[in-house]
Write a structure and sequence with these properties.
mainly alpha, 13 helices, elongated
Length: 307
């Protein structure tokens, strides 16, 4: 009996391992079938590659100024130069290099603020939905309080008090955006906890923490991933808006929102100063939205049977 048990265990493990490549192949096929998903993935990978390898891709230092090359137009316009493909700004700094380095700030703030918001919202949503009663009432009243105040107003007040830097911005954006995760997760947990497998786990004396971590969390994680992906796009736009208002990332750090703000005074004479950062924000957000829509279709159990 011991020999047979020892031989059966590896077979089950091999079966589980063999399912992973099949799942990855299935996702790859679904991605190739979806034009928007493929475009979104290519855009997101391109932006991530640019942010990671910015020191190697940028032709110049982003803060290197040259008084002899102020407001040089892009290379395809009259007066442009191949030395500055996208032109230079009002201080003679290379626009392409600044765009490349600006991708780092936008992605770091977008991703990490969503991680902070997601962790808080996931924990609060699971606790409120699973335990209900006074815990649910308390969490939902806090959620209602956050929703009663305009998000941008709350962020402006906090940044006005504590100042603006990258860490503060990540924490502020995370703390003010967790409510969307809490409401979504809570609604799914309220449905899940009435399912037979949850009741069976309770009937055999399984701890609440084990049920929440091993049974509930995996079942809400797909929806959590989808909304997190879309929230990254929203957060990038919000960070750009704050930087445009002068309350986001401050010099010498570079962000697309700050570049957009500093270039608005030159729209009549040097349109590229604001146009290229605006295009970078637009294409990045569109790519993330396209990828999020594809993930929603792939991770939605109701659509898997139709794929």
């Amino acid at each position: 009996m011991n020999i047979s048990a020892q031989t059966e265990a590896p077979r089950e493990e091999e079966f589980e391992v063999s399912k992973r490549p099949n799942q990855l192949r299935r996702w790859a096929k679904l991605l190739l079938r979806s034009k928007t998903g493929t475009i979104g993935m290519l855009i997101v990978l391109s932006v991530c590659f640019t942010a990671v390898f910015a020191p190697f891709l940028a032709p110049y230092e982003p803060d290197a100024m040259n008084a002899a090359n102020i407001n040089v137009p892009p290379m395809w316009l009259d007066g442009g130069s191949s030395a500055h493909v996208l032109g230079t700004d009002s201080l003679g700094r290379d626009m392409l290099s600044r765009l490349i380095y600006g991708s780092q700030v936008s992605l770091i703030i977008g991703v990490f603020s969503v991680i902070v918001a997601g962790i808080i919202g996931l924990a609060m949503g699971i606790l409120a939905g699973y335990y209900g009663k006074w815990i649910d009432n308390l969490v939902m009243r806090v959620v209602d309080s956050f929703l009663a105040v305009p998000n941008i107003l709350l962020i402006l007040v906090i940044l006005g008090i504590f100042g603006s830097n990258m860490l503060t911005l990540i924490l502020v954006l995370g703390v003010t955006n967790w409510v969307i995760y809490a409401r979504l997760v809570r609604s799914e947990v309220l449905s899940l906890k009435e399912r037979d497998f949850i009741r069976a786990a309770k009937s055999i004396g399984t701890k609440d923490s084990t049920i929440m971590l091993k049974h509930i969390l995996p079942n809400v994680f797909s929806s959590f991933i989808v909304i997190s992906t879309l929230s990254v796009a929203t957060t990038i736009i919000l960070e750009a808006s704050l930087s445009f208002l002068g309350l986001g990332i401050q010099p010498p750090s570079i962000s697309w929102g700050y570049m957009l703000s500093s270039g608005r005074d030159y729209l009549a004479t040097s349109w590229w100063l604001a146009t290229f950062p605006g295009l970078a924000i637009t294409f990045t957000v569109l790519g993330i939205i396209f990828l999020g829509d594809w993930l929603r279709d792939v991770l939605d159990p109701r659509s898997q049977g139709r794929k």
